[in-house]
From TrEMBL:
The keyword Transferase applies. Residues 35-388 form the Aminotransferase class I/classII large domain. It comes from Zooshikella harenae. This is alanine transaminase. InterPro entries: Ala_Aminotransferase (IPR051926), Aminotransferase_I/II_large (IPR004839), PyrdxlP-dep_Trfase (IPR015424), PyrdxlP-dep_Trfase_major (IPR015421), PyrdxlP-dep_Trfase_small (IPR015422). Its cofactor is pyridoxal 5'-phosphate. Belongs to the class-I pyridoxal-phosphate-dependent aminotransferase family. Keywords: Aminotransferase, Pyridoxal phosphate, Transferase.
Amino acid sequence: MQEINKSLKLSNVCYDIRGPVLAEAKRLEEEGHRVLKLNIGNPSPFGFDAPEEIIQDVIRNLPQAQGYGDAKGLFAARKAVMQYYQQKPINNVNIDDILIGNGVSELIVMAMQALLNTHDEILIPAPDYPLWTAAVTLSSGKPVHYVCDEQQDWLPDLDDIRSKITPQTRGIVLINPNNPTGAVYSKAFLLEVIEIARQHQLIIFADEIYDKILYDDAVHHSVGALCDDVLVITFNGLSKAYRAAGFRSGWMVISGPKHHARGYLEGLDMLASMRLCPSMPSQYAIQTALGGYQSINDLILPGGRLLEQRDRACELINAIPGVSCVKPKGALYLFPRLDPKRYRIQDDEQMVLDLLTQEKVLLVQGTAFNWPYPDHFRIVTLPYVEDLTAAIEKFAHFLSRYEQ
Ligand code: PLP
């Protein structure tokens, strides 16, 4: 029989957060091992329940959710999103500027598929949330990575961004608060990026899915609220702040000079229609989520579980010789560095695989986030302090064998 291969358009598409190491973790679990999983930002398995009122809204509305709905999403859900952004305030956002999706993931892919032609370039942070790179590649575009500077609290390097702009550059992705680094960008920094986008007519793709997960004195600024004359597409959803990742519900909001982008917006509408409509039941959660009690604050303020876990994880990681971590100001992750003078790591995927088989702890290697060197890894700060402590202790023990 002739071999059946994946399509050529997938040959350079990578999404290693759920790659071969996760498959090995599943195999170990099937053999009966307990694996401490610090690999995926999925709040609910770690005891972070979605607000009861949004669950009840979905249950109550199930009978109305049987048929297909509007391709762009339920009117009431879009209206709630519109009002949320009007308060930011992102100016000039109408109901038609909002698209609901089956998670931000679907919308990222749609946003790239509708825009890119072969050779078009999108600037993406390194490290990144790798779906952005994968979506650009899948859409026959070219991901061009700009460097985020660990010495500057992981702030993107503006000179590097400027130096990578070519006539083919169509847009720039900002992930703020950032996955995996936890950086939160200041207003002054965002204004600089806006200026670059203005000069080079770039679209800003603002992934703000962690906008409510902030620590200490961090303040989140939506880039779309800081300019009216640059096309900004802002992404957000229910997966993180509302702990409802399995609902698969997200949205994108288009702001700025839309009259210059009619063709692109038509393309987005066409892709929205081709998937018929976003899943109906979970859309009934959006209005209550955005308008209801923001229980996420109880988790991030002093005494909150997320804050406590971030603090403890950071402290334990920084106590390991040769391991250092910039304290995240937002999101759900640490992205620590392994001093290459101390640890001989040539292949960081192999390292996390060795950690998994030897200690039954699952992390994700830094190169999975398009970080160019095998000297970082990502930890999710969602597990209870006891599990985080156990996992980090096992990691420290494992690392001692990698010392050169
Ligand atoms: N964007 C970022 C930065 C993320 O970290 C994630 C999920 O981890 C997503 C988008 C995808 O979110 P969703 O569950 O809405 O598809």
